[in-house]
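User: Can you predict the 3D structure for this chain?
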Amino acid sequence: MLKYMVAAVMVLLPLSANAANIADGKEDYMVYCAPCHGVGGLGDGPVSLELTKKPIDLTVIAKNAAGRFDENKIKMIVDGRSMPRAHGTPEMPVWGRWFSFQATAGGLLQEDRKTIEKQVNERLNNLIAYLKTIQK
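Assistant: Here is the predicted structure, written as C-alpha cells:
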C-alpha cells in the first residue's frame, strides 16, 4: 500500500526547473494567468476589474506562508482537477483540464492518457517554476 502512495505523491513533485522550463512557464503565465493576475502577478490584470473577487497577488505566496513556497499545493490549485466542486464553480479556470484538452486537440488520442498527463504535468511544473521566480 505504501509503495502505491509514494508513487502517487511522486507524480506531484515538480521537475527540476531550468531556464527553458521557466521560460515556457512564463509563456503560459502570460497567456492564461496574466489577464487576471497581471503581468507582474499582483492581481491587477485587465480582466480583474470585471471579477467579483479580486485575483490574489501571486508574488507573495511564499511570504504569506512564512517563507515557504509549497510547489505541490500551488500546483494542485492551478491544476484544479482535484479540487472539490460541491459548493459551485471554481474561482479560476481548471487549467489541468484545459491543458489536457489542448493536448488532445493537438493530435493526441484521448485514449493516450499517460502521454496527455505527462504533457499537462510538464506545463504545470513549468508554470509553478515561473511563479516561484516572481516571489518577493
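Residues 21 and 52 are 33 Å apart (CA to CA). Confidence is low (pLDDT under 50) at residues 1-15.
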